[in-house]
Amino acid sequence: MSDEIAVLPQKVVDWLSSQENLSDITFLCEFPPVKKANPVKKPVVAVGIENITLNDHFDETEPGVFVENEYCRDARIKFEFGIHVPFSSGGTECHTVFTRIIDALTFNSDLNILESGCGETVSSRDTGAFVMTAYALVLADFCPAETIEENYHSFLDKELLCGSHIRNGDIHVTLDDKNYWNGIVKTGIYIGSGTGTRTLNLGFKPKVFMTGAYEVSPVTVDFTNKKVTSYWGFTLDNGYRTMGIETTSTGVKLLSGSSQDLFGATPNLNESGMTYAYFALR
């Protein structure tokens, strides 16, 4: 990882050097800059990193509720700039150059710059220039992508902190896995039609299906007529089930009426006008 951190300043230099409105400035990764044999003829900016701080990343799942995201980290990266301008340009030119750099980073990139600042301008005989040290504190979130080739919105290399994680396919689930987990449970209601046989199409063969009449006792007993009526049922994909219900390849089949009587009990899972709630497990 240390090697990847070391190349971050070069990435910043490459990006700044590509900006047309900064073409009159020379950017380099020599920080702090060494002594030069000749006086500076044009603005030169040396780019380096003072420090990087990593923190846990939290996602706001709902207003005021934050949940830790174990796959992401928040990084505070403090970039330092050694700004050199010719004596002929005057010391205030150091501030002008720094302002142009911060404007470019702020408006031309997606970087989240938390703060920036600069020190005093001093005269340096070593480089024959006015010199000013400045900084920019950047907040970046480093999260894994589906592939390491993803084009991130920032010129910072976001493989820096998660590259090894991204490349480890053994610890990631597939899109099919995600779709299965997101759709593993299906709930709903249906209104009874009164027919003796009815098919409910769920779009899949359920491993478990349960249904019952809304605000009705699961079983009612008519002692006068010695009749028991069942308003609930379940079925499993291995064939185990209560009376009046069967699993199909795309859902369930409801069977009601006296023809389905079992031990004096009648299933009633499709009574006309009655509301039934169901739960299905894919």
Describe this structure in words.
By secondary structure, the protein is of the alpha+beta class. The chain folds into two domains: 2-172, 2-Layer Sandwich (STM4215-like), CATH 3.30.2000; 181-281, no CATH class. 16% of the residues lie in helices and 43% in strands. It is built from five helices and 15 strands. It has helices at 2-6, 8-17, 92-107, 163-167, 175-182; strands at residues 26-28, 44-62, 65-86, 112-124, 129-142, 185-191, 197-201, 208-213, 219-222, 227-230, 232-236, 245-247, 251-255, 265-267, 275-281. The strands form four sheets. The protein has a five-stranded mixed sheet. A four-stranded antiparallel sheet has the order 6-15-8-11, with no helix packed on it.
Q: What order do the SSEs take from the amino end to the carboxyl end, as H and E?
A: HHEEEHEEHHEEEEEEEEEE
- What's the N-to-C terminus distance? 43 Å
Which residues sit in consecutive blocks of at least 5 with pLDDT less than 50? 145-166
Number of domains: 2
How large a portion of the residues is in β-strands, by DSSP E?
Answer: 35-45%
CATH superfamily of the largest domain: Phage tail protein-like
Task: Determine the CATH topology of the largest domain.
Answer: STM4215-like
CA radius of gyration is: 35 Å
CATH class of the largest domain: Alpha Beta
What's the total count of β strands? Answer: 15
- What structural category do the secondary elements indicate? alpha+beta
The averaged pLDDT comes out at: 81
Shape: rod-shaped
> Based on the structure given, which CATH architecture of the largest domain is correct?
2-Layer Sandwich
Largest sheet: 5 strands, mixed
Q: What is the spatial order of strands in the main beta sheet?
A: 1-2-3-5-4
Q: Give the number of helices.
A: 5
Fraction of residues in helix: 10-25%
